[in-house]
Write a structure and sequence with these properties.
Strand content: 15-25%
Largest sheet: 5 strands, parallel
Structural class: alpha/beta
CATH superfamily of the largest domain: HUPs
Bound molecules: xanthosine-5'-monophosphate
Amino acid sequence: DWSPESVIAEQVARIREQVGDKQVICGLSGGVDSAVAAALVHEAVGDQLTCVFVDHGLLRQDERKQVEQDYVQSTGVRLVTIDAVDTFLGALAGVSDPETKRKIIGREFIRAFEGAGADLVAEAAHGSGEPIEFLVQGTLYPDVVESGGGSGTANIKSHHNVGGLPEDLTFELVEPLRTLFKDEVRAIGRELGLPEVIVARQPFPGPGLAIRIIGEVTEERLDILRRADAITREELTAAGLDDEIWQCPVVLLADVRSVGVQGDGRTYGHPVVLRPVSSEDAMTADWTRVPYDTLAKISNRITNEVDEINRVVLDVTSKPPGTIEWE
Ligand code: XMP
């Protein structure tokens, strides 16, 4: 008896009851979850919602433009963009430990909202300076379980939108997707009229490309990974594999180098790992049997077009025992 309509009706009522006539903000990550959570809250409280997009410099190619143009045009939500690239990269400098990265990113997200962002948002909201009391998060059921929020489950990773929150948090959370799985979230997004480019988008983690660089995160490494990721997504889409593949992280092994040859010259570059997975809900996953020709095309293009990469490898591990992301 599950239907998108009934979940929307139930959540809208619940959000109205929780929020009353107060102001709400929602961080848009560019991903499906935050987009649908924001659309639900917009449905419930309309103009009381202001969306905030933190550009932390850990995004995929063109992602900022997609949020600022596609999403805003299709929903009509009010959006404030906070440029926080220097702050995030500064906070991440010298850090290679996965959990430390996640905690820093979670903390900086909230700081970005509470700091410079709060004024901008209040002004955008209504110019009266009334404080914003609620923060929307697109937390899904699997995020809750894997961050140890479920019934007695061990903490596997600190998802930025659950375990990474600072203790002095001054917002009350609104989490309308907390009981839902990704396919349900997509159904709700479609029902709410979001465009297919957003609803069908591959999941992308809140901590972004930072957790796909094994080693320290630097601007140069981000730039390398971003180019390899864009090529991979382009080729998988061109091969018609978007439905079969849940997501395909591209992981840069930034501290590893191997010897190669290009033209007459020796190269000493980095490997990237392709991690195509098929899944229903990201709780478990299998590696996708991507056709060899498609893999060959991706590998050729990456090694030809991204100078710093001279080797492409394929991750053939299911989840469990591997997780989808490498960090
Ligand atoms: P793992 O790596 O735990 O990933 O198998 C499961 C799914 O969650 C995504 N993921 C995240 N999503 N914040 C998010 O919103 C996070 O911190 C985060 N970490 C992982 C991952 O891309 C996969 O779809």
